[in-house]
Design goal:
By secondary structure, the protein is an alpha+beta fold. It has helices spanning 3-7, 30-38, 109-112, 120-124; strands at residues 11-13, 27-29, 42-47, 52-60, 66-79, 82-95, 100-105. It has a five-stranded antiparallel sheet, with no helix packed on it.
Length: 141
Amino acid sequence: MSSKDAKDPNIVMVGPTDNVDKSVAEPLPKLVQTMTELLNRRMKVEITDGRVMIGSFHCLDKQGNLLLANTTEHRTRQKGNASSVEKRNLGLVLVPIEHRVSAQLELSKKEAAVPGFLDPSRIMESSEPLLGESSDGIAAM
């Protein structure tokens, strides 16, 4: 690792553990580290047909598709003047980027009190491409 990498604000070092040599720690781009911080966090995703998926964030591929685990689908049905919400358990769900309307992360009270916590514009301003690929296909959550 060069001294340039150590000073680059877009590179974050993987935290060393007792059994890892600090001199060989691999740098990770900030965007990758942010995505790893989201792993297993509850997320609410609205899709184009009006359904809402609530599940644990499992993965975001380089095309921007979301993979949610332990997912529950919520669908609102209109019956005359009344509406009802139908729920069903789906398990593992892939939400393609072209069908995603919005994605929201469930925050703790402590996280919600921090201004700009996980602000997508702040996360996406990183000039470091995700995993060496172009970041053009990655959408802000």
